[in-house]
């Protein structure tokens, strides 16, 4: 009986070794395909054409990129960069979306507090902005939603400047400067006073904003 | 008399060296670059972000409109399987053992609303942050390529990972050949695991990108 078990185990081991070995050989053959893939030898005509096209493409890429300064926001690192070409003009900390979910107790809607990612542009520039509190701000605090619009207006909360980039999202100031560098907002991008002032002065309507 | 002759020799040697040692243009690399730029231009023209993974130079870039937004430089890159098709691939799925969970705010509950009065670093925020992202995960690209990001390996973990790669990959190859499917496997690791977490954060499902191998020798990795 013991002999049969040992024989069986030996056969299984041998089959496993063979399978791995065969798979390895097949894999090696596949890998040689990577080499073939890159060794497409071009003819002299192809080469001349490639060279000309590469130069044209380089220009096309330059035309695609933003003209002048642009803003990059890294929501993971909670930092911003004001850039011109590849050069960083200014960088600093920000606070971006917490990623939390707030369900409406009525069950009809919910909010996800993410900072939207993608390519945007400055659509509005506001000095001394005031905040019109949306429904979620009252729901989050467990307060009743006011019927009068004036009861929603809060001043001083957004700092000295705000740069709107659409759908109610802004790059704005903050009272909670200690939280810069953390994900705490409801989707807007909070920036420290000095950085915000610099961004406000450096950007204009149409300045590109890249948020990732 | 000897001095001008010496100078003449020096100039002659310099000339010969310049002619023969000047960097020669590699036709394959120019041709490949052209193919690559054409593919990238299609991605750059489209709205949104895209990624480029240069396997040879171990460099991943997140780009938009041709400008680099963020760069990652993995410490180690291994690859196996069929060559990655030279076309843009969409990230169809991110998988990990434990996926980051969003916190649900209970309206009016102090416990779930951010604690604003303390200093950063002294408290845990009720938020989805980069530190909540997985350190070990896989990026599935249209069922044709799989990029796995593994954590920093040392000692037994490193040995286990090597074993898994050198035994697991041939077995996977065998299975794929049996099913007549072609697939590429890429494994990367970072010195700083926060970089891996940042990659998970930045690459959202649906993003398109190019994986390419500029002209160079390939190995098993």
**Main structural class of chain A:** alpha+beta
Question: What is the oligomer described by this structure?
Answer: heterodimer
- The DSSP helix count of chain B reads 4
Radius of gyration of chain A: 29 Å
**Strand portion of chain A:** 25-35%
Percent helix among the residues of chain B?
25-40%
Spatial strand order of the main sheet of chain B: 3-2-1-9-5-6-7-8-4
Structure summary:
The complex is a heterodimer of chains A (212) and B (221). Chain A is an alpha+beta fold and 212 residues long.
What does the model show?
The complex is a heterodimer of chains A (212) and B (221). Chain A is of the alpha+beta class. In chain A, strands 1, 2, 3, 6, 7, 10, 11, 12, 13 and 14 form a 10-stranded mixed β-sheet that branches. A two-stranded antiparallel ribbon of chain A has the order 4-5. The model of chain A has no long low-confidence stretch (mean pLDDT 92). By secondary structure, chain B is an alpha+beta fold. In chain B, strand 2 and strand 3 form a beta hairpin. Chains A and B meet through helix 1, helix 2, strand 1 and strand 4 of A and helix 2, strand 3, strand 4, helix 3 and helix 4 of B.
List keywords for this structure.
heterodimer, A: alpha+beta, 10-stranded mixed sheet, two-stranded antiparallel sheet, 14 strands, B: 221 residues, alpha+beta, 9-stranded mixed sheet, 4 helices, 33% helix
